[in-house]
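Why run this: before we spend reagent on co-expression, it is cheaper to look at a predicted model of the complex and decide which construct boundaries make sense. The entries below are exactly what would go into the expression plan.
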Amino acid sequence: MNATLESNNHRSDRVKRAIQVLSESMRGLAAFHVNACVRCGLCGDICHVHQAEPVPENLPGAKMSKVAAFYRRYHTLLGRVAPFLVGARDITESSLEELVEHVYGRCTACGRCSLHCSVGADIASVIKAGRNMLVAAGLVPPNLQAVVDNQLTTGNQMRITDQEIKDTANWIAGDLEMEMGLGQIEIPVDRQDVDFLYLVNPREIKFFPLSLMSAAGIFRVAGASWTMSSQFCDVTNYGLFSGDNQAAFQITQNVLDEAERLRVKRIILSECGHGFRSFRWEGPDWRGSPYPIEVRSVLELLLEYLEKGTVKVDPTRNPERVTLHDPCNLVRWGGLIEPQREILKRCVMEFVEMTPNRASNFCCGGGGGMLSMSEYGDRRTLSGKRKADQIRDTGAKIVATPCHNCADQLLDLTKKMKLGVSIQSVTELVYNAMVVP
Amino acid sequence: MHVESRAFRNRTGAYSRGIGCQMNRLLVLASLLWTGISLFTQLISAWGGGRKTSAVRSGDPWRGVVYNFTSTMLPSRKETASHNPGNFVAGVIMHVGACLSILQIVLVSLLNHHFSIPILFPAILLAGMTASAYLLLHRIRKTDLAAISVPDDYIASVMTLLLMCVAFLNEINSISHSQLTAFAILFFIYFPLGKLRHSVFFFAARYDLGKRLGYRGTYPTRGQSLSQHGDRSDERHS
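The model came back. Tokens follow.
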């Protein structure tokens, strides 16, 4: 009996927290968009998930309606007195559990629907409010939550130890020395009073070191003064994906504190879509104040090197046709659209755009934390079909993507859909083309 | 072009005056006030003081707002429009008809004044009614759409269709002042309660997204191409 009482109290608290957070998340942003939606249903055509699996549940408007139903119940007159008229729903344990699949499992929050919505409703921001609510209810899919927890407890999402980071840096530096023939090369870790702290995706340390190696080689030629951190090396921020603003803030703040400890002048972010969005745009808002330090993407830095002639490139070293995948969080939500194009035009012989491109790109299907939620793995692969078709249409042999998250999904698509392309970061292509003095 | 502007006359050709008419007018005014105050309150509540961003800006928020109210609404930039030209055209016609109807009904019911351009106004209203009926049928017949529709969607569609019918009947002098005002009162009472309120939130939503994406430098965009079936890439650099 005590257990039942305790469970009921717990349940009630969870629902209360969800109602409170929904109200806070909606105000000032998502509420505009919920009230603008006319449920015209035209958004199906523009969503990669709906294109791959055209069922009503995958309509962006339908996903938004799931969150809107709760909003209407507690914040509109008709929703309070005649909920059936406006499709309003009570927030209960079961309705919250039902929401999980709709906002995590059927949507990557890529925002393509927001840009093409017939009335201009930002559907992704409403989905995000739904995720905020589920965080408060403790209903984040466990695998996604585990990544957030890893970041909070170990400083990076893959639980890489500081010793592993130092060892990897050492062997990559050794390989670089042999490859470049420029004498001793160091990948500095925890060095103080340098120009910038370079944040990487832990994937670069653990599985795909070529990206870090390329960056280090370019920094060597450019004579950059830089360092990595053994404590907070991670450019990613899965709090953005889970909708946990508190965790996302803490992850950002940890890096800022580390930058202060290392007394660096700026932070350079490795190629990462959501990492860029988190640090560049959302972070200051989570903090509630501007950063005391400059934060830039490595793409901006690379373009600066190329424009100033600090790094010289020979495009004939990348003779194959290259296309570019636009990560949603970097381009649509991050506004970083042209530097990667400018870089590629200088570094490859033939650069071909996908159609559509830039802010109107299609999500690869791996965004929004989808890659870490294995329970939705089949849908993730299926929803990448539109991207696979886009890649095929270009006839490219190399797909450049300035995002490691997208790279993982594209690698998966390449394998499963037999695309016959190689997936590379922009940094790798610059390194390939770089003329070593 | 002949513009007709005169005091409203009902079906019998008599001008609408008298205590009943004054009462109707007051009720219309009250329902309009209800709509205005209610929508304003909802807008303020949804705004909630707004959200200030602390990030250093990359672009121009106001250019983003302008862009989101102009280019992005054209079929050349909006796939919901380019992929569904029928719905897009019907939507535009319906909204023109609805706006004209509201204007007509307010003028007649509140100021007892009829303003029209013969042939043009009735033609717009007829086209609006046709478009509205088409969109309502589309909602009923399309499985996807029916699945996500709630009663409010049908009520709003029917109300809009009736709105244009009433305005049209007024144009051809076939509705009494009391019938017109009765509908006006009903319409304006329902207006802020259901999805018809999108008429205000549409502007708020476009403003908000345009400003945010303008601030970040995403808007205005260039070079993006709409997705079409079987298309090839259109930009090459070599």
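The beta strands of chain B are 4-7, 113-116, 236-237. Chain B touches chain A through 73 residues (CB under 8 Å). Bring this page to Monday's planning discussion.
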